[in-house]
Design goal:
The protein has helices at residues 11-23, 63-73, 87-92, 94-116, 154-173, 195-204, 224-237, 254-268, 298-304, 312-324, 327-335, 340-347, and strands spanning 2-6, 28-33, 53-57, 77-80, 124-130, 177-182, 184-186, 209-212, 218-223, 243-246, 251-253, 280-283. It is an alpha/beta fold. The protein has one domain (2-187, 221-251, 292-310, 336-346): NAD(P)-binding Rossmann-like Domain (Rossmann fold). Strands 3-2-1-4-5-6-10 form a 7-stranded parallel sheet, sandwiched between helices. Strands 7-9-11 form a 3-stranded mixed sheet. The protein has a two-stranded parallel ribbon with strand order 8-12. The mean pLDDT is 97. The structure holds nicotinamide-adenine-dinucleotide (NAD) and 2'deoxy-thymidine-5'-diphospho-alpha-D-glucose.
Length: 349
């Protein structure tokens, strides 16, 4: 089976790529990634010499490149993770999100449809999406698979649009698809613009911890390797045309999460209790900030027997340990040196 994974050099994509290569030696995995600021081939150092792995540098917005790629390789399936993924960046540059998340997704759908020539037996287009498409919850309730879409940020609007296109290709052309909408992921290899790695990096370097608004915004957090396992389960056992919500049943207000991180960091860095908390700084709120996300993940639990395997306190501690013992990765990301990895590894061969 030839599988095209898009965005495999990113945070979640690298975990999915590693999992598929490790668990399915009969698969040939092609990782298509543009290597934007968020793509980092150092995330895949341990598997890059696997004979079943091939990296492809390219942009999903480039339709003719994508069509050629499908003609050359005749993929059996696509696991689509490539995206612009950071809400704050979508507020400053919304168009980039339209290009990659909407047009890029439609280019992939077209290429898959044309390459499979309506012979869809054994084929699958898996679209990885987010709980942010459902909008914001009040203090109560959960997002289910039938919650109406109500995105508020340019990021979530672009992801919602891509989800609609994926369903439209299923309904109109019969393309076999699955979609999953997951809550906030945390773990190794996450770019330090996102809350958890940003705070870990700043605490280590005695820099302030920017808390947006009053810090009472709530997110549901899931260990990234649990997300990769859920994607594996849905890819292999999910029903054509279905949507699955994935979550951790693990809600935290940002301020409580940051305080818990501060506690762990003081302990790991052998600093007096309360040192890191002094870095907490309340800053201007994110415009259109969604108050609360919470996932009802009972469908995937019932249908595919999925439950998160890692408790949050344990996962957070492991995450802190990973970033603290991978200084080189963090230094390369924050200095921009990670951009040289592709040249060193691939262009001189
Ligand atoms: P990320 O930003 O870490 O990685 C995105 C990857 O896509 C990068 O490697 C980047 O180089 C690549 N990419 C971007 N534009 C591209 C283009 N035009 N062509 C080819 N490659 C391109 O993102 P992530 O956090 O790993 O998220 C992956 C997917 O999962 C996204 O679709 C995101 O919406 C979704 N998601 C993320 C979370 C989360 O908490 N991070 C939660 C739910 C869903
Ligand atoms: O819910 C899934 C989504 O989770 C994914 O679709 C997105 O790709 C991913 O980036 C994430 O979005 P969030 O906006 O929830 O993640 P972020 O880490 O940016 O922020 C988490 C919360 O912390 C949010 O309420 C904003 C707040 N925050 C964030 C940053 C970066 C701060 O208070 N300070 C900060 O410096």
């Amino acid at each position: 089976m030839k599988i095209l994974i898009t965005g495999g050099a990113g945070f979640i994509g690298s975990h999915v790529t590693r999992r598929f290569l490790t668990n399915y030696p009969a698969y040939k995995i092609y990782n298509l990634d543009k290597l934007t600021y968020a793509g980092n081939l150092e995330n895949l150092k341990d598997i890059e010499s696997n004979p079943n792995y091939q990296f492809v540098l390219g942009d999903i917005v480039d339709a003719s490149f994508i069509n050629n790629l499908f003609s050359t390789h005749s993929f059996d399936a696509v696991v689509h993770l490539a995206a612009e993924s950071h809400v704050d960046r979508s507020i400053t540059n919304p168009l980039e999100f339209v290009f990659t998340n909407v047009i890029g997704t439609v280019n992939l759908l077209n290429a898959a449809k044309n390459s499979w020539k309506e012979n869809f037996e054994g084929k699958m287009f898996y679209h990885v999406s987010t709980d942010e498409v459902y909008g914001s919850l009040g203090l109560e309730g959960f997002f289910t698979e039938s919650t109406s879409y109500d995105p508020h940020s340019p990021y979530s609007a672009s992801k919602a649009s891509s989800d609609h296109f994926v369903r439209a290709y299923h309904d109109t052309y019969g393309l076999p698809i699955v979609i999953s909408n997951c809550s906030n992921n945390y773990g190794s290899f996450q770019f330090p613009e996102k809350l958890i790695p940003l705070c870990i990096h700043n605490i280590k370097n005695n820099k302030s911890l920017p808390v947006y608004g009053d810090g009472k915004y709530t997110r549901d957090w899931l260990w990234v390797e649990d997300h990769a396992r859920a994607i594996d389960l849905i890819f292999h056992k999910g029903k054509n045309g279905e949507t699955y919500n994935i979550g951790g049943f693990n809600e935290w207000q940002n301020i409580d999460l940051i305080k818990e991180l501060c506690r762990i960091m003081d302990e790991k860095l052998d600093r007096p209790k309360g040192t890191a908390e002094k870095l907490i700084t309340f800053v201007k709120d994110r415009p259109g900030h969604d108050l609360r996300y919470a996932i009802d993940a009972s469908k995937i639990n019932r249908a595919l027997d999925f439950t998160p395997s890692v408790k949050f306190e344990e996962g957070l501690e492991k995450t802190v340990e990973w970033y603290l013992s991978n200084d080189e990765w963090m230094n390369n990301v924050t200095s921009g040196n990670y951009k040289k990895y592709y040249e060193a590894q691939y262009t001189n061969r």
